[in-house]
Amino acid sequence: MKILLKNVDIIHPEDKLDIKGTTVLLDKGIISKIGELTRDDKADAKEFDFSGKIIVPGFFDMHVHLREPGREDEETVITGCNSAASGGFTGIACMPNTEPAIDTAEVLKFIKGKSSNHLVEVFPVAAATLGRKGEIISPMAELVEAGAVAFSDDGAAIKTSSVLKRAFEYSGMYNTPIIEHCEDESLSDGAMNEGINSTLLGLPPLPSVSEDIIVSRDILMADYTGGRIHIAHISTKNSVNLVREAKKRGVKVTAEVTPHHFTLTDDLIKSYDTNLKMSPPLRTQEDVNAIIKGLKDGTIDCIASDHAPHSIEEKESEFQYAPNGIVGLETIVGLSFSELIHKNKISLGDLIYKLSINPRKILNLPIPKFEVGSSANFSIIDPNYVWTVDILKFRSKSKNSPFDKRLLTGKSFAVINKQKMFFDGQLIDLTSV
Amino acid sequence: MALSTRHLLGLQSVPKEDIQTILDTAHTFREVLERPIKKVPTLQGKTIVNLFYESSTRTRISFELAEKRLSADAINFSVSGSSVGKGETFKDTIKNIEAMKVDMVIVRHSAAGTPLYLTKICDSNIINAGDGTHEHPTQALLDMYSIRQKIGKLEGLKVCIVGDVAHSRVALSNIFGLQTMGAKVSVCGPSTMIPKNINELGVDVIYNIDEAIQENDVLNVLRIQLERKAREYFPSIREYAKYFGITQERLDKNGKDILILHPGPINRGVELSSEVADGSNQIILYQVTNGVAIRMAVLYLLGTHN
Predict the structure, then answer these.
(1) pTM of the prediction?
(2) Domain with CATH 3.20.20.140 in chain A
(3) Catalytic residue among A153, A154, A218, A306
(4) Which of A150, A287, A335, B20 has its CA 20 to 30 A from that of B61?
């Protein structure tokens, strides 16, 4: 099948590509021509008029919870991949806090196998320790061989400094980063950010210093061991400052932020809406401002959703007993454009770095190329498309989002990868006739 | 005489007129409680559920008594712990109860925000009988009523809340209610038991109990919850009693007349010495009697005017 993408812009900041209103011809999902086309080229090609839309290197979400194996009622590898495709992603990294945890090559291969025929590529992050218990490091060599792109005990930080040190040393042999969920367990039994709002709402407080302590520890340990640390879902002003300062000193540290941590604050929790409960918790406007600054100056490398599906029954409970997390794959692009591009916080080029290029670099994955002969790995974005979030339209099995009914500007229009296209709610096989 | 709201979830946004109305109405019912026949037919035919997800003796009995004095049909529904892990979700429990056609729900729950959630999923009038460490509005109302009766006013009074403010639902309701009525509120306790940023509510923080006694007209002394996690927030009971406990000696040293409230139950020898607990400054049992009148007032105002 030949497809013709007409009147489309192409932006690939890493390869210094910035082309307006061009035409791209794909033959069986392989880029066969960009620019002027002959009549022959166009023969029996299915045409798409993509005026006003931009082709960018396929977006990559490096923090996704797929819930399979273990909680298939909340999400499966396939529904998670469908959600990712619908949200504008061609690749995701999935977190190891499944049941059982991704701490053996078998579990990792099981997940890879489930996704092997999907447009969205799944790169598992393996547990840093056996069973994520924080005691013994996982079989990292075997896990890397099976396809692990990083290690993490996500859901919690690696418990002790001694195990963290070993994890850095051992994973360092394979140049794989450690992704840390930075929370000091002994300070983290609260339900929301400690501050005036937790006092007013009578909810158990969780101080921001809980995150800062582990960010500091991890930076120091990465520095000491020469290991690579990636700070997941950074949420506090002090942590942003710590990362900025460490980067200046040459520590191998990177960081990601979620859209909810640059969009929402703990002021909203007065509704006690459990879809506002996440870990780390929503913080203050001061933290949001520091995060935006960190996104601007490059302290924060990536935007990731921390897509965390939960069943309605589990979320429909008392705020302090509700599980943490929200689904995010299908709102991350819209929120990033609405909050960062349309409010002139960062440039489109920077956003493409944070949503596509940087996560792949951190995980040692190749960056999609826009060259004739290479397989198309595209996200096709309409940055000015105005739409209203409707959780019932999510491809994800779970609907736990605080962004339902929110008006957003900017949306993924289509994705193309592995000779497949997701467009208008349909998965299209580009190798068929 | 109606309130501006059909629920009583807390005192944070309750206007002065409403508080005034409740206190005045309570005064009428207080008189009823002194009669030989203490029952009025005001809420005849109304069904009220006391939904207690947390053990409570005095608050539940106080509400139940208030309901019976007003001739309402009262049902007690007690569950220990949260709905989580019980099989039935909290929402399903509420829906089931409401299907039995109840008019009002009195709710006590270990999780903050539960009464607000109830207003979203059912049509009954909701009264918060204590949610987590959030609010306990009827306790604050009965405290304010008791103070007003004893001193004659609330406006301009200086009231200090003493003890474990951070783990108290009484403290926040008192702060909001008293401030609305024009009193100046401070808190006194070990700094580990004072919530961060509480000064943003216009509340002064005092760490010296003698200073608190000296500076205030009223002390509302909270219970130190020895049985709970709160125990980890101070070094020892001995140290607490020594530095924050109210003794007759401390009161005498100050010389000035001071009113002492306590929501009960008291830990004798901890937050109050036995001498103070039985002394002339305290109005602990007076508060208990007033509690019934306050709850009658709230039930009456919400049950007949909305």
Answers:
(1) 0.93
(2) 58-362
(3) A306
(4) B20
